[in-house]
Amino acid sequence: AYLNVGDELGALNELPAEIAQALMSRGFPAPKASRKLKTSFHETFLVEFGAALSEDVMIAPPGKSGRGARDRAIVQILGANLGDKPLFSPDALIGAALICQALALAGMAGVAVPRFWYSGSVAKRGALRDLEFVVLECIETETVEDEVNAPDAEFDGIVGALRDALASRAVDAEWDGGHLPRFDDVHALLAHLRTLARTVGAGDLDVPLAKLEAECKTKWKPAAVPPTLIHQDLNRGNVLCSQRGGKAWALDGLIDWE
């Protein structure tokens, strides 16, 4: 069976009580307010606490933290792993371990990212069962998607620096915890994407992927290079920036690692 995440979760606007209870049992302050920010392939909530968060509740600090708020957090209930379609199998979900590892690797590469505070699971959410959730640092920023953004030239420079940082260090055996999708070349990636498309019956995706796969096999022989961490969506809603001292814009934190 395949489900539509938006249909299943879009009408559910309250933070599940079991998440609030799990947070308090972990040592978080009691949540005083929560607001659902969006439903996409996951549910995203902004949670405000009655007191500042303690370092004691943090699972895995990144090498370089973003500019985080101390009395708020982002809670995501995780869903689909095929981002081009709202259809997914309940047996193939994004996992908290993947996000935790990606944040740690990005931080080690010198990229400012949110802290990973906590993870757990929700027994039931609509028609879905046993969904993992993650609690992430809320990045303080001037970026407001589609409203307030860094100027084009400064934004392009920030994105270029992000790409360079992520590409500067190979994900070798020391880094690789086995949770991230890993592809040795473009052919392996395209084969994986075609498998995902066929699994959910998305022929409109499979056909162009098959064409691209054939073209790559005949026209491109990729060089063998060590794999590096890649963020696939470096857009203005994920690259959070602020203007420092009324002068240059700078990165506050790179989000959306699921």
Structure description:
The protein has 6 helices and 9 strands. It has helices at residues 5-9, 17-26, 96-108, 152-167, 186-199, 203-219, and strands at 3-4, 31-39, 43-49, 68-77, 87-88, 116-125, 128-139, 239-243, 249-254. The chain has a 5-stranded antiparallel β-sheet with strand order 2-3-4-7-6, sandwiched between helices. A two-stranded antiparallel ribbon has the order 1-5. A two-stranded antiparallel ribbon has the order 8-9. The protein is globular and about 60 Å long. The model is unreliable at 81-87 (pLDDT under 50).
Keyphrases for this structure?
258 residues; alpha+beta; five-stranded antiparallel β-sheet; 6 helices; 9 strands
**Largest sheet strand order:** 2-3-4-7-6
Supply Rg.
19 Å
Q: What fraction, in percent, of the residue positions are helical?
A: 25-40%
Structural class: alpha+beta
Strand content: 15-25%
SS summary, helix count: 6
Could you say which overall geometry the principal axes of the C-alpha atoms support? globular
pLDDT averaged residue by residue: 84
How many beta-strand runs?
Answer: 9
Task: Profile the largest sheet.
Answer: 5 strands, antiparallel
Task: Provide a short characterization of the protein structure.
This protein is an alpha+beta fold. Helix content is 29%, strand content 24%.
